[in-house]
Structures are given as structure tokens and as C-alpha cells.
Amino acid sequence: MASYVRKAFSLVVIREGDKVLLGYKKRGFGEGRWNGFGGKVEPGETPVEGAARELLEEAGIKTSPAELNQVGELEFTFEGESTLMQVHIFSPSSYTGTPTETEEMRPKWFPVAQIPYPEMWPDDILWYPIFLKGGKFRGAFHFKGHDQILSQHLEEVDTLGKHNTHTPEHNTHAPEHNTHAPEHNTHAPVPS
Ligand code: 6OG
Asked: Residue 157 domain-assigned?
């Protein structure tokens, strides 16, 4: 059974009425795609603290852990890679500041009906509808490269686990979608 090194990330999507704030990722992981704001949770930091820090660093928007509601929890794995990205997704009930372009992100408001899914991670079109109707979700996606989802699990949930605990990196077992038996029988036929 494969084992993964789990790494915690934050992701913040701001919704205001019929608009959402996304950022065009100018460099690094997910470069060239529109996404929420976020990044790796630093040692000694909770995911929600990381979310507030990244939102300020990447978009100049100030919020606090008390204002950030957790809306989703997703796990991403990539064929041939040993990292499991655990992404804690938040949306603020309030914030201050004007979205400002930084070295990493170019922010832009999109009407909900014009979210640029073809220019976003392929999982987004699957979970944004739950987020946009005010629901919470949990899921796991296994990718080949950065464009193809090989297997997935997504469910709407009433509550998510507490996010105010530290999530140290540790080895974890492969998610279920990656442990299935090979499709064909590779044993030699039994001689008769
Ligand atoms: P930095 O490398 O910038 O953190 N992220 C994803 N977001 C979406 N919507 N879909 C994915 O599908 C993602 N994989 C990672 C988590 C990376 C940022 O990108 C998010 C972080 O906010 C695979 O530090």
C-alpha cells in the first residue's frame, strides 16, 4: 500500500452577493490558473491562521480566524507523487481592505455566472456549486498531471472537523481510491 506525506494548505474564496473574488496565480503551483488565495500552513500555525495570513500576503485583505468559516476539506494526490495535499477551504463572513495585486496573485471579481472554470483547477467546477449554495463539502481527488482527474470522491456534509488543531505532517495510508486491485488477473492459468 502506498503511503503519502500529508501537507496542510489553506484556500480562501470570498463571496459577496453574486460575485466571487479569485486571483490569477502568477507563479508557483497552479500558475496560470484562477483560484482562491492560500498556501502551505506553516509550522505552529492552524489552517485558519494560515488562511488569514495568506489572504493578507497574497491579496492585501485583512480578516481574522473568527471571521473565516470553514466550507470545505479536500485531499489531492497526484499520480507518481508522494505528497497528499490536505486543503482546508474557508470563506470570510467579513473582511477589510481592497483586493490588491501582489507578486503572486492578480485579484479579480467574477459574477457567479461567469466563473472561469476552464481556467481553474478541474476539481473546482465540481465543488463550487456546493460552496455557492452555502453548503459544506469534503472530498478527495486523484490527479494524473495537473489536468486530469483519475478518481474522485465528493460529498456534501453538515459539519466539518474542527480546524483549530495543528496538523503536523505525517505519513498516511493511501486514500481508498488508490488501493483498488489491478483490473486484470496477472497469474498464469492453472495447468490442467
Ligand atoms: P502555494 O503553492 O501557492 O499553495 N490548491 C488547489 N486549489 C484548487 N482549487 N484545486 C486544487 O486541485 C488545488 N491544489 C492546490 C491550495 C497552493 C495553493 O493551491 C491550492 C493552496 O491554496 C489540485 O503555497
From this structure: yes
Who lines ligand 1 at CB under 6 A? 9-11, 28-30, 35, 38-40, 76, 85, 87, 121, 123-124
Q: What pLDDT tens digit does each residue of the chain (192 aa) get?
A: 568 999 999 999 999 999 999 999 999 999 999 999 999 999 999 999 999 999 999 999 999 999 999 999 999 999 999 999 999 999 999 999 999 999 999 999 999 999 999 999 999 999 999 999 999 999 999 999 999 999 999 999 999 975 434 444 444 444 444 444 444 444 444 444
Assigned domain for 180 exists: no
**Single pTM value for the model:** 0.86
Ligand 1, atom 23: nearest CA belongs to which residue?
76
State the total domains in the chain: 1
| 39 touches 11 (CB < 8 A) | no
Structural domain that includes position 38: 5-169
Q: Atom 13, ligand 1: which residue's CA is nearest?
A: 121
Q: Are 9 and 40 in contact (CB under 8 A)?
A: yes
Instruction: Identify which of 10, 91, 105, 121 to mutate to test ligand 1's pocket (most ligand atoms within 8 A of the CB).
Output: 121
Question: Counting atoms of ligand 1 from 1, which one is nearest the CA of 87?
Answer: 16
CA 104/CA 88 separation, integer angstroms? 20
How far CA 138 is from CA of 9, 23, 70, 72, 80, in Å, comes to 15, 23, 11, 6, 23
Does residue 178 sit within a domain?
A: no
